[in-house]
Amino acid sequence: MRISDDRYSRDRQRYELAWRLIGHEARTSTIVRWTGLSQYQVRRIFRDYGRGRGRSEIYRLRGIPPHILAFFWRSQELHHEAVVLAGLCRELGVFAAHAPADVERTFPSLERGDRLCDAYEVFKAQFPESQISMEYAVLLVTGLAIGTEVSFGYCKQCARLMIVDRCAVRHDHCLECKSGANHGTAERVSGPQPSPHTPEAQPTEKIQRRLF
User: Fold this and answer.
1) Who contacts 51 (Cβ-Cβ below 8 Å, separation ≥6)?
2) From the first residue on, what is the mean pLDDT of each consecutive set of 10 residues in the chain (212 residues)?
3) To pair with 156 at 20 to 30 A between CA atoms, which of 88, 110, 171, 200?
4) Contact (Cβ atoms closer than 8 angstroms) between residue 79 and residue 171
5) Predicted structure pTM score
6) 151: which DSSP letter?
7) Sign of dihedral through CA atoms 82, 83, 88, 93?
8) Could you tell me if 117 and 17 are in contact, meaning their C-beta atoms sit under 8 angstroms apart?
C-alpha cells in the first residue's frame, strides 16, 4: 500500500509541476524534461486543466528552447536581473552541493523544478517587466550547473555575487564596477587639454619662430 501511495504522490507531483511550468509558458519539451511526463500528457494537462480553469490566455511556446547564454550580457540591467535570479535559485536549493555526473541529464528533477518555480515567482514579483522568461531561467540554471561557460563568482572590488563568463579574458569584476572604472578612465582621458595659449605651449611656438 505504501508503494502505491508513494507512486501516486510522485505522479501528482509531476502533474503539479507541469501545471506550474505551463503557467510560466514553458515549452512542451522543457516540461517533459523536468517532469518525466510524455508530450501527450503535457498537452492533455494544458487542454483539460488550463482552459478548464479559465486560463485560455496561457500560451505554450513552440520551437527550440533558447540556448545562447550571451543573452544575459545584452545589457547591464538584464545581467543584473540574471544575477538576482541566480542568487535566488542558489538560496532556495536549486543547485546541488556537488555537481552530479551527466548534469544535462540528471539536473532536471521534480524537486529542483519546484524550487526553480519558487525562485522564478519571487523574481517576477520583484522584476515583473523582466525579459527573462522561464525558458531563459532554465537555460541560466542549467548553464551554471554545468559550469563550462558560466559560473558563480565574487567581484574583487565590491565582493558582490556575480555570474562569470568563463570565455571572457578577464572576469574578476562585476559589470557595475567595470562600468564605473571605464567611466572614470573616460573622464581622465577627456579632461581639459592644454590650450595653445597656455605657458606649456608657448616655448614650442618661440622655438619654431627662431628656426624659421
Assistant:
1) none
2) 69 94 92 95 81 58 86 94 97 85 87 97 97 97 94 91 86 80 38 40 40 32
3) 88
4) no
5) 0.78
6) E
7) positive
8) yes
